[in-house]
Amino acid sequence: MATTEVERRRGQLAALSIAAVVIIVGVPLWWRTTETYRAWLPVSQIKEFATLQLLLSVDVEVVFSRGTVSPEQQKKVPMTQTQDEEHRVDENTALKYRYEIRYRTATIMEEDALKQPTASDADLSLHALSENPCGSLVVYVIPESSSLLSEDVDVYIGQKRTAILRLGAQMRVGRTLEQLLAHLEPRIKKILHMMSFSHTDITAALSDRVRLAPGNRENIVDSMRAFKSSPGYEITFSLLNPDPKSHRLHWDIESAVETYVQPLLTKLAPIANFSIDSQTLYYAMLGVNPRFDISRSSYTLNAESLAHVINPVEARLGSNAASSNPVLNFLLYVPDALHSPLHILDRKKQAVHSNAFHSPRWGGIMVYNVNDVYGPEAVLPVDININMAKVMGVFLAQLRLLLGVQSSSPPPGFVVASCSSTGLADWELDRLMWSRSVENVATATTTITSLAQLLDQIGNIVINDNIAEQVSSAVTSLQLAVAELEAGNLGFALQYSKEAILASERAFFDPSLLHLLYFPDDQKFAIYIPLFLPMCVPILLSLIKIASDARQKRREKQAKKD
Amino acid sequence: MTLFTLLFLLSSCLLVYCINIEDNVGQFFSSGHTNNWAVLVCTSRFWFNYRHVANTLSVYRSVKRLGIPDSHIVLMLADDMACNHRNPKPATVFSHKNMELNVYGDDVEVDYRGYEVTVENFLRVLTGRLPPSTPRSKRLLSDDRSNILIYLTGHGGNGFLKFQDSEEISNVELADAFEQMWQKRRYNELLFIIDTCQGASMYERFYSPNLMALASSQVGEDSLSHQPDVGIGVHLMDRYTFYLLEFLEDIHPASKTCMNDLFKVCPKSQCVSTPGHRTDLFLRDPGSVLVTDFFGSVRKVEITMDSINLTSVVSHRKEEPAANGELQKEVYSYSDQLPVSEIIHQ
Fold first, then answer.
1. Chain B partners of A400 at a C-beta cutoff of 8 Å?
2. Which of B182, B147, B134, B108 minimizes the C-alpha distance to B342?
3. Containing domain of residue A92, as a range?
4. What is the count of structural domains for chain A?
5. Of the candidates A167, A183, A202, which is a domain's last residue?
6. Which GO terms fall under biological process for this protein (chain A) (predicted)?
7. Does residue A41 sit within a domain?
8. Which of A333, A436, A453, B195 allows an S-S link to B216, with CB 3.0 to 4.6 Å?
9. Is pLDDT at B321 greater than 60 in this prediction?
10. B197 is annotated as an active-site residue
11. Residue B301: pLDDT above 90?
C-alpha cells in the first residue's frame, strides 16, 4: 500500500515537473526560436504620411520702375503680401500654395537696364545685376507708355527668372495703390502659373498617389509623354545607315555632345544623372516602305505608318546591361540612295519642318536627307559630313519634351525669350524642379505607406536592420523635404526628395522582403500538431488525473470533517 | 431630286470618313499605355511535358511577331525541349502534327531556363525584388504606363500551379504579387492568361484594379492536350493555346480586333473544357480593348514640331601630329559586351 502511494506520488511529481518544464522552459524557448526578426519601424510617423499636406511657397519680387507709381505712392511701396491658395485633391491629399510677394521700387541700375532698346537686351543687363535663387521670381513693372515691349505684347518672359510686365491702359490716371495692386494681381498670377507651377502641373505630378479621372486630352498626353522621375537616365544616340555602299557617313558625335548636349545635362544635374552612349548601325532599315509622292517628288512617310517604324529597329538598339535606368533613344536615319529624299508628313499631309517624330517615354527619330550633297555622277560611296547643329537642335527639342519641360504655347500677350545656349531657361528648370519634388514626395510617401502596410499584414516577413535603416532615413528625408518646400528652398527640397525616394525604393525592393513565407494558419497547425500533440496529450491527461484526484481527496476530507 | 439624294449621300460619306479619322486619332490615346511587356512562363519539366514548352514558345512567337522586342519579354522555360536528348528533330519545337510550324525558330532569347524557373524567381520578377546583380534582360522594368501580358502554363489544380514538379504557387500568392505591383504602379493594365487544369481557380482571388484574366478551364475541369505526333512521340500542344495561336496568326500589328473576340477562342466544342475569363476588375470595356494592346507593341507617335536653333560652333579637338611627323591613327576598341565588373560591384 505504501509503495503504491509512493508510486502514485512519484507519478504525480513526474507529471507535474514535466508540465512545469514544458510550460516554463519549453514554450518560451519555442516562441523565441521561431519568431521572425523584425527590426523596429517608425510606424507612427509613416502613418502620418498617409494624409499628405503639402505647402508650396514661392518668393516673388515685384519691382516698380519709374512712371508706374506716383512719388507719394512710392513711399508706401516697400511692403510684403502673402497670398494663400488651398486645394483639396482627395481625402488624403491637400495642397496649399503660398505666394510671398514683395513690392519695391527699382534701383538706378535697374532703371538703366530697363532703358535698353529691346526687351532681350534689357533682360540680359538685368541678369548681370543680380542672381536670383532657384524657385524665386522677379517681375519688373513698366509703364504703359514704355516702348520696351511691342504693341500687342504685355509680358516678356526672360531666360532666367525675370519677367517684364507692362501696365494696362486703364491704369494711367489717378488710381490708388490698392487699385494698382488689384490690377496687377491676376497678371502676376498668370506669370506665376507659367514660370513656377500651376495647379494642373502639381496634380499631374501627384498621379502616383492620386488616381485622377483623366482631364482633357492635353493633360493625358503630357503625363504620358514625359518620363517618370528616376535618379538616372541613359541617353543613346544612334546613327542608322541602311546604305553603306552609297553613303559613308561621318558624324562628330563626341564634339557635338560636348558642345550642345552636355551644357543642358549639366544644368539638369540637380534633377538626375545622365549617361550618354552613341553607336552606328549599318544595314538598319525602317520597318515601313515609304511611298513616292509625285507632287513633292520625294518619298513620304505619313503619320499613321510612323507607329510601326520603331519596333523593327528597337530589337537592334541594345542597352547597357549594368543599369536599370530608363533609356532615351535618339535615332538619326539617313535614307538609302534609292529612297532619297524622304519626308515625314503630318496628319494634314504637310511636310514636317524638322523631319522628325518622337514616341512618348521612348525617344525620337530624325530623318536626315543627303540627296542634295552629291549629284548623280558622284563616285559611290560618297563621304558625307552630317551637320550636327541641325541634328542636335531637333534632338534637344525632343529631349526637352521627353524630360517633361512643358511646351505648351504661352497665353496671348506673352512673349517668351528664345532658349539660351544651353537650351533650357532657368524658370523652365524651376518648373521641372517643382514638379519633380512633388512627384518624388508623393511616390516616396506611397512607397513607404504601402511597405508598412505589407509588413504589418504579413507577420512572417523578416525585417532586417538595413531595411529599418532605409525606412527611417526615408522618413527623415521626407520630413525635411516637406519642410523645405514650405520654406521655399526649392534646391534643398529637391535634394531631400531625391534622397527620400532612393531610400524608400531601396527598402521596398529589397530582395529579402519576399512574402514566400506565406503560411496560412491551417498549414501552421498541420505542421505543429504532429510534433506537439503526442507529447502534450499524456501530460494533459495526467494533469487532469492529478486534479481530479485532488478534488476527490478534498471531498473525502470534507466528508470526514462532517 | 436624285441630285439632292446623291449630294446627301456624298456628304454623309465624307462625314463618316472624317469621324473615322478622328476616331483613329482618339483611339491612339485611349488605351493609356506607352509600352508593352510580356512575361511568359512554362512551369513543367521532363520530356512528356513538351506541350507546355510549345505553348509558351508559340505565345512568345506571336508576341514577337506583333512587335514586342526581346528586351521587353521575360521568357521562362523550365526545361529545354529543343535540345533534349529525346527530341528526334533537334533544335525544333513543333506546334502541329505534320511538323508544320516550328515555334522555336532561330531567334529565341530565354531569360530564365531550367532550374532558374522557380516560384521565388517568378515572384521576384513580378514584384521587382531582384538582387542588384541581376542583368537588365532578367528584370521586368515596367512603369505605370506599361501593359503587361502574363502567360502561365503547366500542371495546375484548384488554387495552385505546380512549378518544376516540386513546388507550387497558390492563387493567393499570385493575387498578392499583383497587388504589390499595383502599389508600386508597375503596370497600367495587365492581361493574365493561364492554360492549366482548373485554371480559373488561379484568377479567383485577384483584387487589384485593371486586371483581365483568361483561363483555359473552369474549376473541376481538366485542360486537355491537342494532338500527339507519332514522329516525336508526345502531345505537341494544349488545345486552348493551339486555338489561341491560330487566332493570333490572323492578327497583324495594325489590326483592330478586340478582346471580346479573344474571349470566344476555343469554345467548348473544340476545347472540351470551358474557357473562362474575368473582366470585373478591368476599368475599360473589353469591347474597346484591342488585342494588340497586350500582344503587340503599337507605339504612340507624335510629330516633333519645333527645334532649337543652335548657333555655337562645334569645337573640334585638335590632334597633334606625332613626334616623328606621321599622322596619329585613332585606336578603336570594342566596348565590353557584358560589363561584368560594373554588375558585380553594384
1. 308
2. B134
3. 56-202
4. 3
5. A202
6. attachment of GPI anchor to protein; GPI anchor biosynthetic process
7. no
8. B195
9. no
10. yes
11. no
pLDDT one-digit tens code per residue, A340-398: 889 998 888 888 888 999 998 899 999 999 888 888 888 888 889 999 989 999 999 99
- Joined together, the cell numbers standing for residue B15 give 462625314
Greater confidence (A237 vs A375) lies with A237
Nearest residue on chain B to A387, alpha-carbon basis: B314
Domain stop point among A403, A435, A458: A403
A359: distance to nearest CA of chain B, Å?
Answer: 5
The answer to whether residues A176 and A269 belong to one domain is no
Nearest-by-Cβ selection for A393 from B143, B253, B310: B310
**Same domain? A371 vs A261:** yes
Residues A5 and A65 in one domain: no
> Where residue A246 sits, what CATH number does that domain have?
3.40.390
The answer to whether B83 is a known catalytic residue is: no
Q: Which residues of chain B lie closer than 8 angstroms to A419, CB-CB?
A: 308
Mean pLDDT of B141-151: 93
Q: Are residues A171 and A83 in the same domain?
A: yes
